[in-house]
Amino acid sequence: MVLQVLVVAAGAPLLAGLMRQVRARLEGRAGAGVRQPWRDLRKLARKERIAPHGTGYLFRAAPPLLAGTTLVVAAAVPLVTAASPLDGVADLFAVAALLALGSVALALGGLDTGTAFGGMGASREMTVLALVEPTILLAVFALSIRVGTTDLGAIVTETASSPLSVISPVSLLAAVALAVVTIAESGRIPVDNPSTHLELTMIHEAMILEYAGPDLALIEWASAMRLTVMLGLFTGLFAPAGIATAGAGPIMLLVAVVAFALKVALLGGVLAAGEVFMAKLRLFRVPELLAGSFLMALLAVAASFFLA
Amino acid sequence: MTDPVYVQALDLACGAFLLTGVLVLWRRDLAAIIWLFGLQGVALGALIAVRGLHEADVELTVLGLGVGLLRAVLLPCLMRRALAAGDEGREARPHVSVAASLLVTAVLTMLAYAVSQPLVRLAPTPATQAVPIALTVLLVGFFVLVTRRRALSQVVGFLLMDNAITAAAFLTTTGVPLVVELGVSLDVLLAVLALQVLTTRMRAAFGGTDLDELRELHD
Q: Chain B contacts of A288, Cβ < 8 Å?
């Protein structure tokens, strides 16, 4: 499990770099290289710690809280290995709550600055979050009904032992819902554009506009980890091939790490390539998209009762 | 057809039936809505054909193919012609916003499930357990009929209800007599033809098919 956290912590900026690189290549630019996010983080971490005038402890507490919750989620979610010492405590509900806690902390930090942008970003983030969190819960819950437990590790182990069970209406509906939510949660196009600073469109960037130096580095790192964890959870739930189960030897763990890195890199590459061909959705259309994904998740739960 | 394969095929057909029905609410583009309706016709045909293959009933299988052909090819073709004749390609502003109507659909799904429980308990087989899906599509169709403005989307809502009634009939019984089903299908075809004539007349008289603008009498 320590290995899993280390892989996520070290690999997340590389994934962000890879996605930027794929995008740059498809747009005909040379790109900054896969290791650029790490270099950015190093540069930011060396800078002086600065907080805007009039901000309180909420502003300072938000980045460590975000990074901390994300690290705990990275430990609890079955990414490299389905066995976790947090089993029994960290089930689906705990993971969703931890993700929400991180988002709320960041939104409060954005509000604490008292600027227009911070408040706007926070309110938009809450709008998105209000539909994203129930969808995550419902989509994974639909998958958990078959297994009979909300423990994520058990769900993944069960799917790994019978890979063909993925081809059912329940899994397909849940997969679509979870894919939309993954994109929304990690703030990618078409819900949010991670590379824009245009006040009409930004969500995530608006909240962190006032952060600088090590705080900003922490937030960037945590967002990259969130993306990695969400993509990892997605692959774990629907394509768990190669994942290590309880009691696996060191070689199996190595295979699992490589498989995890490959799957997440592939998914990230596809996501980045898809973004090139897509425009950002208008903000007023975003709840429509998310309501659609919520409905899919609900139908997945309903279908698992209808078609039992 | 063996039992596990039958159940899986039936579930897939029902899943596709439900999904296409719900997606109709999500899209604003009328061409996409018609396309989705065609897909639902395919799912309905497959559903009946799967039932027919399982019961080893040739008549039912052929009926499934016929129903699929009518609802997946003929009706969408007619509607596409009506769409091409008009100028409006989008459902601009439905009475209930799309996000809200999707959430209403969630409630309708639960309602359909609650209402159909006594029906399922009468004879719990894989087919009757899927009856809530047919009821959900029925309610969604009615919702489309009530909340959309364009005549064409209302036609799709009406046809969704008819699809759902057919699906419910084939899921609860081993099959409606061929003559009855033929009569119903022809009725639907006739209704669509009549509606097509009606929309053409409406467009000629009022210049649009937004039904809300027809509240005042014209000379």
A: 26, 97-99, 102
Angle at B66 between CA B60 and CA B68, to 5 degrees: 105
CA distances from B4 to A143, B54, B126, B128 (A): 20, 11, 10, 16
Torsion of CA A232, A236, A241, A242, to 10 degrees: 60
**Residue in B98, B99, B106 closest to A298 by CB:** B106
- ipTM of the modeled complex: 0.74
Residue B34 belongs to what domain range? 3-214
* Residue B204 belongs to some domain of the structure: yes
Distance from CA of A218 to the nearest CA of B (A): 35
Count of structural domains, chain B: 1
Would you call B102 and A173 a contact, using CB atoms and an 8 Å cutoff?
no
pLDDT tens digit sequence for B73-128? 888 888 888 777 766 667 667 788 888 888 899 899 889 988 988 888 888 888 88
Do B99 and A287 lie within an 8 Å CB cutoff? yes
Chain B nearest CA to A307, separation (Å): 6
Q: Establish if B219 belongs to a structural domain.
A: no
Q: How many helices, marked H, and strands, marked E, lie in chain B? A: 9, 0
d(CA A172, CA B20): 13
Higher-pLDDT residue of A181 and B195 is A181
Determine whether the interchain pair B98/A302 forms a contact, defined as Cβ–Cβ distance below 8 Å. no
For residues A288 and B94, what is the distance between their CA atoms, to the nearest angstrom? Answer: 13
Using a CB-CB distance cutoff of 8 angstroms, which residues of chain A are in contact with residue B99? Answer: 287-288, 290-291
Q: Is residue B54 assigned to a domain?
A: yes
Confidence of residue B173 (pLDDT cuts 50, 70, 90): confident
Put simply, the answer to whether B113 touches A295 (Cβ < 8 Å) is no
Name which of B18, B99, B129 is nearest A308 (Cβ-Cβ): B129
Average pLDDT value for residue range A203-221? 88
Instruction: Identify all chain A residues contacting B116, using CB atoms and an 8 Å cutoff.
Output: none
Q: Do A303 and B18 touch (CB under 8 A)?
A: yes
Which chain B residues touch A298 with a CB distance below 8 Å?
Answer: 106, 109
Per the prediction, chain A carries an average pLDDT of 85
Q: Among A126-140, A204-218, B71-85, B196-210, which is the least confidently predicted range?
A: B196-210
